[in-house]
UniProtKB/TrEMBL annotation:
It holds the Pfam family SBP_bac_1. The keyword Transit peptide does not apply. Keywords: Signal. This is ABC transporter substrate-binding protein. InterPro entries: Bact_solute-bd_prot1, SBP. Transmembrane segments: none annotated. It comes from Sphaerisporangium dianthi.
Length: 457
């Protein structure tokens, strides 16, 4: 079937910048093919199961603090135990999962996936709709936007754990030097960038071709709706990548680059991080997981200490603010689960206890989506060291998370991201305008969808 071939190709992913940022690879007990890395075999756990009389649910995941969270769950649970294996981060895990899907064996009961990958696996019937297994009991624990990101149509295919509400990180020293206040609109952002350039200052930001998920989020903020998809009509998909909001955003950033107001360096590279450390960029448009990533990359230390702050993402219409997200992970039940109902209980209950959530956000491993953490005074009022003690959650990230409404992802998201990367690269080298790039992107992705057997609406 053409769409099965599509998904097989799409699932062989390279880890995206967003994933590398919010979930840095810590090695672990993975490696090898899916069949020899655990799957449904509970004899190869990374963790030690002490309650051996209880049934076991196998799990793949890669958070840096997985060992702690698994141990917390097993210690507190008297009904089921988790056998956890790290088979690799992001793309490495997805490759092994795809192998298991194709073979019909070798997948775990529960798997950690980025939310935008869920439709890729759902369309292969590789994930279970867990709505009938206790969703009503935990629905109030997460926002409407968080649930939408893990849903396909009316079905729920994962439990949200962490997210990435977007904001604007900035260098206080650069803003002070050039007498810049945090821009509230994108028009003000461009004006500030021009002011800094005219005064001989650094680039104000960066247009990277290797962060297509960020570009998509910024287009959605302007009003774009790239995809519409409902599994009730599995052969139809809406693809709208060259509407006016999409063109406006690409033209805007392409214009900033052409004027020399922002850089065009790929992000998550040593060169880019060196630029951030050395004050080459006045702002960094990124998600709530960025402080943890930047700290791990050496930013905000030594001579950089105390120089960073964060402000809300600039808006197109400040009277009608739109909050968007970049990144985020969930735990899904696979169709190879021995006991889907029991596996769903694990997915619903994992990374949901106070100790695990607190460890996650205090060590900047996750930005929690569980409202028990997101609304907790100690989280909301926390003074973030990376931002020199600024109450970043209260002032910026929590309001952004509260306002996020969720998006509809496509079942061929990786192809779309690759195509977006190609077009942003063309904008950067000057061979196309933003509007032209949007038209080419629409043509490319719509044609690909049709090749896979979809009717494009």
């Amino acid at each position: 079937m053409k769409r099965r071939n599509l998904i097989a190709a799409s699932a062989l992913l390279a880890v995206t910048g967003a994933l590398a940022a919010c979930s840095p690879d810590q090695g672990g007990g993975g490696g090898g093919a899916a069949g020899d890395a655990g799957g449904n075999n509970a004899s190869s756990c990374t963790n030690t199961i002490t309650k051996k009389e209880l049934p076991v649910v196998t799990m793949w995941g890669w958070y840096p603090n997985m060992q702690l969270v698994v141990d917390n769950f097993n210690k507190q649970n008297g009904e089921v135990q988790i056998c956890w294996t790290n088979v690799g981060q992001g793309g490495d895990e997805y490759q092994k999962f795809q192998t298991a899907i194709s073979a019909g064996t070798g997948a775990p009961d529960v798997i950690m996936v980025e939310m935008d990958r869920i439709p890729t696996f759902q369309i292969q019937n590789a994930l279970v709709d867990i709505k009938k297994f206790g969703y009503d009991k935990v629905k109030a624990n997460y926002s409407e936007g968080a649930w939408k990101d893990v849903s396909v149509g009316d079905a729920v295919y994962g439990v949200p754990v962490d997210g990435g509400p977007l904001a604007m990180i900035y260098r206080k020293d650069i803003f002070d030097k050039y007498k810049i206040t945090p821009p509230k609109t994108w028009a003000e952002y461009e004006q500030a960038a021009q002011k800094v350039k005219d005064a001989g200052g650094p680039k104000f930001g960066d247009l990277g071709s290797n962060v297509p998920a960020l570009t998509m989020a910024l287009q959605i903020q302007k009003g774009a709706a790239p995809f519409t998809y409902d599994p009730a009509q599995p052969k139809a998909i809406g693809v709208k990548l060259n509407d006016q909001p999409s063109k406006d955003v690409l033209d805007y950033w392409g214009g900033l680059a052409k004027k020399g107001l922002v850089g065009t360096q790929d992000q998550f590279t040593p060169e880019y991080i060196s630029g951030v450390i050395n004050g080459k960029y006045a702002t960094y448009i990124s998600a709530a997981w960025a402080p943890g990533y930047l700290t791990g990359a050496g930013v905000g230390k030594g001579k950089d200490t105390g120089k960073f702050a964060v402000a809300p993402l600039p808006q197109w219409d400040p009277a009608n603010p739109v909050h968007v997200n970049w990144g985020g992970s969930a735990f899904s039940v696979t169709s190879q689960a021995k006991n889907p109902e029991l596996a769903a209980k694990v997915a619903y209950g994992f990374y949901a206890d106070k100790e695990s959530l607190t460890d996650g956000w205090t060590n900047q491993i996750i930005f929690p989506l569980n409202l028990s953490a997101l609304k907790a005074p100690e989280f909301v009022d926390a003074k973030v060291a990376f931002f020199d003690g600024q109450q970043a959650n209260k002032e910026v990230y929590v309001p952004a998370a509260d306002g996020y409404k969720g998006v509809t992802y496509s079942p061929f998201g990786q192809y779309y991201f690759d195509a977006m990367t190609k077009q942003v690269s063309a904008i950067i080298d000057g061979s196309v305008t933003g509007s032209q790039a949007a038209d080419k992107l629409q043509e490319d992705v719509a044609a690909y969808a049709k090749e896979q057997g979809f009717t494009v609406q």
